Amino acid sequence: MAILQEIKGDYGRLPLYVNGEWVESNTSQYQKVVNPAFNKTIAEVPFSRKEEVDDAIKVADEAFEKWRELPITTRAGYVYKLKQRIDEHIEEIARITTQNHGKIIDEARGETRRLTENIETACSISYTLAKGEHLDQVATGIDETLTKEPLGVFGILGPFNFPSLAPFWFIPIALTTGCTLVVKPSEITPLPMQWAMKAFEEVGFPEGVINVVHGGKEVSETITKNRSVQGVCFVGSTPVAMQVYKLAGEYGKRAICQAGAKNYVVVDEDADIDKTIQALMPSFFGNTGQRCLSGSNLVLIGSMHEKLKDRFTQSVAKMRLGYGLDESIEMGPVVTRRAKERITGYIEKGVEEGAKLILDGRNPKIPDYPDGYFLGGSVFDDVTSDMTIAKEEIFGPVASIIKAQNLQEALSMINTKTNYGNAACLFTKNGKNAREFRRRANAGNIGINIGIAAAMAFFPFAGRRESFFGTLHGQIDCVDFFTDKKVIIERW
Amino acid sequence: MSERRYTISSLLSRLVEIEDKARDFYASSEVEGNGDIIKYFSLFSKEHQETAAKIEITKRETIVEFALESISGVDIEKCLNEIDDAILGKQITALNKSIKIEEKIFQLYTNVAEKIAHMSGEASQLLLSSNKKTKKRLDILRQLQKRR
């Protein structure tokens, strides 16, 4: 199948977006941005200097006073126009996502659709959830009112794996509720967010309402520590999420930290095998396994182990690997060489610890892309829940098959053998088991006959235990995150 | 049943190819007979062009990422070959060719619409509504055939 045209071959040195203008960073530190299918440099991302980040925050803080004064209808109007403009760039953003991240174009298109759903949701809830409450005559001649007020400047620290979507879990709601933003995309995959900024520019948001700086850990710390910043939204790995959360706490900031995962997918003895295998493929290998909702441990109950193991493995072996801009490709490369090495290391560890590697994806043959960071799907059998590959987040295309006698044993693994609690899925035809599972599995996102339990924009993106730090989650919960409640007791 | 697997984008791209083939067939066929056939062939060519454009947009904007399952149990290559055979057939009139093409498309879209409903409800609906047009085209073409 023909390869879709790239939007550009080289995006050059990425500028920052501050106070409504694209400005070149005055840093001397740049990092290469790579197309992982070719190991080819397609841009250079600056590591912003501290002064530049502080300047962006100052600009956002000044813009806040004016932005919050605009009627909510006007702010929502800007965001509604943003949706129209994003729609015009949607295919470009999807292709750039594939080019920069490596995910296949279907996944990139799915990601951009989610992005727009978040904008639509922000518009639709702004007149309802963001409004306050009033109680007349709480005492004789006294009324009491609750209003929600925007807090100020927030920092958005994006992940590499959903480079355009994840920042949009927060951006549209922050803007409609009256907050202003400094966004730092992932330094590995900065291009999709950079391109999405075109839409903000075209809408003509007031200067300083949204700003983009680039860089790594230091930039995140600068944002989090700055006195004018009211809170940060982070999506990424658990160790970094813990650091961000700790720092935010230390500096008295609000924080939403969506973190890593080790998700169990359980297949009951009576599950529909064909449908289950179809759903398991994107669960374990979608986004090349680099998503916090990916299946990782595949628990097969009783006789399902014999019924499903070989067919699943054959299906994995047949996956077509290659550059995601070819629409027929089923799995792209992993994001960096380092990621490939880390995942390969986990596969070696699995073998060392006695798991049976029944499909080895370490050396896939893809003649057209000899330099890409490709890994085929790997499948382990005879994994036990105490092995490293069953406990630690691999974040790659590896499935670990674990046998269980019954649902209770599977639930026990989910609840006691991992510290993560992002997602858990069950495939079954048994309603009682499904109910038991959704009530007892200690994870924030539950899938029943769904392999990727991804909450829509009008629900919170849940997660618990070491998969999430904070009290309010991404997406719809953000209305409360970006605002504070004020209670007014009045007597006239 | 074919074991060929499609991603949803590759599948929808193949449907665009089918629409393009049908469009080209109607645009380039030399039809003998009354003006009605010429008029309808021109109209049908435009309809297929419009459907192709709609499928392309739907593909780009409506894929649901949490259910990106590969699609099997449909064989678009076979359908494309059958349409090619119909177009190239020598002992058959353009009118009869058009009926064969529309029948193949109707059958294929019915099947595909069901398969992709959970991945893109919009694309599934588009194929079903496109099939309503296909059905109308078939009715017209069969009437024209009867009149000859």
What does this structure look like?
The complex is a heterodimer of chains A (about 500) and B (about 150). Chain A has two domains: about 5-260 and about 465-490, Aldehyde Dehydrogenase, Chain A, domain 1, CATH 3.40.605; about 265-455, 3-Layer(aba) Sandwich (Aldehyde Dehydrogenase, Chain A, domain 2). In chain A, about 40% of the residues lie in helices and about 25% in strands. Chain A has 15 helices and 24 strands. In chain A, helix 1 packs across helix 7 (about 215-225), helix 2 packs antiparallel against helix 3 (about 105-125) and helix 9 packs across helix 10 (about 305-315). Chain A starts with 15 loop residues before the first strand and ends with a strand. Chain B is built from five helices and no strands. Chain B has helices at about 10-30, 35-60, 75-90, 95-115, 120-145. The model of chain B has no long low-confidence stretch (mean pLDDT about 90). The chains are: A alpha/beta (about 500), B mainly alpha (about 150).
Q: What's the short version?
A:
Chain A is an alpha/beta fold. Chain A is 38% helix and 24% strand. In chain A, a hairpin with a 4-residue loop joins strand 3 and strand 4.
Structural class of chain A: alpha/beta
The largest sheet of chain B is: none
> Which structural class is indicated by helix and strand composition of chain B?
mainly alpha
Structure annotation, total helices of chain A: 15
Specify the helix fraction band of chain B: over 70%
The mean pLDDT of chain B is 91
Main sheet summary of chain A: 7 strands, mixed
Which runs of chain B of at least 5 residues are low in confidence (pLDDT < 50)?
none
* Shape call of chain B: elongated
- Full CATH superfamily name of the largest domain in chain A: Aldehyde Dehydrogenase, Chain A, domain 1
Number-wise, the strands of chain B total 0
The chain pair forming the largest interface, with residue counts per chain, is: A-B, 31 and 19 residues
What is the percentage of strand-forming residues of chain A?
Answer: 15-25%
